[in-house]
Amino acid sequence: MRRFIMSRVLLLVVIGPVLAAMVWLMLTLDSRGHTRADAQGAQTAEVIAATVVGPHLNAGALTAGRFADEALSDLRQDVSQLRHDGQLLGIGVWGLDGTPLFEGSPGGSDVVRLSQSDLERAQGGQSWTVHDQTADGQARLRVFLPFRAEGTAASAGSVVQVVIPHSQLTAATEDRLLRQQVSVGVIFAVIVAGLGGLRYRLLRRERHARHDLLTGLLNRRALYEDARGLLAKASSTRPLALLLIDLSEFKSVNDTLGHTAGDLLLQQVAAALQGAVRSDDLVVRLGGDEFGVLLTSLPNTGAAQDRADQLLRRLREAPFTVHGMELAVDASIGVALAPEHGRNLPDLLQRADVAMYQAKRGRRGTTVYDPGTDQHTVGQLAMVTDLRRALENDEFVLHYQPKVSLADLKVTSVEALVRWQHPTRGLLPPGEFLPVLERSGLMQPLTRWVLREAVQQAASWRRAGMPLQVAVNISPRSLLEDDLPARVLAVLRGAELPASLLQLEVTETAVMTNPERAAFVLTQLQARGVEVAIDDFGAGYTSLALLRILPITALKIDSSLVSQMLDHAADEAVTQAVIDLAHRLGFSVTAEGVETDALLDRLAALNCDQAQGYVVSAPLPPAAFEGWLTDWRARTSSTAGRSGTPPQRISPSHG
């Protein structure tokens, strides 16, 4: 029904009949109006005939078939008075044989001859009316009435003609008719305006539902609706192609110039894409900096690659100017073909997405989906099911990697690192499953499990007289959840663990996704005693200005900075600068991924606070870690600082 109201057919199917009905009603009212005016005129004529002529049409008033002189005088006087009052134009009287008995109009203008058919109608007792006009154009109504006086024979009857002005009756009727027609017109206008307004609102709502508000392009919903019919017609000789376009380095535009500049760039990119395709192709914004183009009526499958290359050149060569600054735009485009790669939109989207990421990783610009290179992605899709099962069956475990103080080699904190105890593949490191978890939306449930498990383990160590601060990694999505502070505090209270023994590690990427929101959430946590550290510092693009406003207590330098420090003076200079900056801001510094004693010694010389890596210990299960910690403390208790025999380290093979 909604689509019918929005269609142009509504104008013919609904408005047309309504208009026809209105015209018919107006014509009917007009006809009834004139009929009513004639009836009113005839009624008036009957009254005049009965009161003016009737008293004289008796046996005593007629002599030899004519009115007596006195009767004629009275009739003329009455007719004159009525004519003067405007109620009458004239009166005529005839015998039933057609003989004129009285003529009462000025100058004889109303003298008529009755036809034989008129006399026959009168003899049959029928009355009739005639419309005509006076010499000066005045409308009048002639009413012919058969009349027979009481006590006379039927053959002695008369025909009385009463001529009355019809313009007054018609004016009154037309005035009434006009009011009725105006009412009908108003009702019709209200109906049409209501339908038109409803159609406009529905069209506007439909446009908002099917279009991206920022760029004006079709959105994902419209693509699903419109592609169904197009894909049904696709064939090997007339294929369709779905292009998935992802802009390169768009995030840096938002971070550098602001989101307003990013929005302006997206609008210009949308216009460029729309101008580079044919009118029957679909261009949609799927979300963020991701666009889709559905190419129709391709001559062959090879044309899809050519069209994708043309679009990419258009983006690379088009002038994009934002806030007076000219920006270069590049993109990665994945291409999936119908029906070769799928006959429905979800399959095409998934395969175009695979091709797009292959283009991005290979820096090839455009890539057509190749099933032969999609084995890893298919395996990841199957892994999602396994991961859901793993969450339900508690197949994840935590290993703990110690952090040692470089001043005295004491272990006062650990980092909780998740592993997957796969039922058939054994213990899997996080690199095997965390990327799939993140893309499938399962990272948040896992983060909550890790938080609960790590806090309970820290509480257990504390009750055993081994208080250790435990660090837990928080995913970007979890960091932006409104209830994160309340959930963290609830877990701490449930385990009876002081907030100071929990450190949350967040990545630079997580903070930069929404700095304001991240700062708000982290401030609430720090205010309740929970420490916060920036993880993998130096691997992302954190603005140094954020370091002075974020409520953090520690920086963890990424291994990519420290691993080559002994061989590259520039890496050591950067590491030294980060340590000095952190100390000036009141942060402690932990170096990640430390693999050698020499690197451990050099970091100590640079005043780094803590180190973490396989040179100290691999991540260990709780029981193995407890044994390692007892041995470590025994070996370091008799030494001062870094002098003497270094403590035993556990290699990755032991973990």
UniProtKB/TrEMBL annotation:
SMART domains: EAL, GGDEF. Residues 636-655 are annotated as: Disordered. Pfam families: EAL, GGDEF. Residues 380-633 form the EAL domain. Residues 238-371 form the GGDEF domain. This is Diguanylate cyclase (GGDEF)-like protein.
